[in-house]
Amino acid sequence: MNKAAKRYAKALFELANEKNELQAIYQDLSLIYHSIKQNPDLQKTLSNPTINTSKKYDIIHKIFASKVHPLTANLLKVLANNDRLNLLEDVYKAFDNYYKKQKGIIKATVTTAVPLDEKLEQRIYQKIKELTGSKEIDLLKIIDPSILGGFILNVEDLRYDASIKGKLNKIKSKLVEN
Fold first, then answer.
1. ∠ CA 154-160-162, rounded to 5°
2. Cβ-proximal residues to 7 (8 Å cutoff; 6+ apart), any chain
3. Which domain CATH number covers 65?
């Protein structure tokens, strides 16, 4: 993640926290991030180097200015003035990390070969809660057929690989050692 984006996110986070506006700013950044991600034309426009920054800011301002908190609108203006609108995605991700850390929300990722059924998903949530003591979990579910079966669970710095591919790799390395 870009260091400048982290600095912008941290400054915004601290200011929003000081003004008791964390939730509003988090929702604004989430709205902007997801709106850009879901609109390929807007994505192309914002990443197009031939379009000048003031034009990009005008577009963003017209779309979001009336929908976001003044602190968020100010962030957009500052990013535009510093020719840093390209950092919006990373600013959101860094702010998301700060926000979730303060709220005690654990980020976890589970990778499976096929989509999880509801029962197994609940068991994974319960296991993460047991391991971390956290009441709230932000679980990202990834489907990767190359793991063949089982799952890979990442919870903060911990990794548990119960995939068939992982087990085959362990067997392979033991055979190579011998």
1. 120
2. none
3. 1.10.520.20
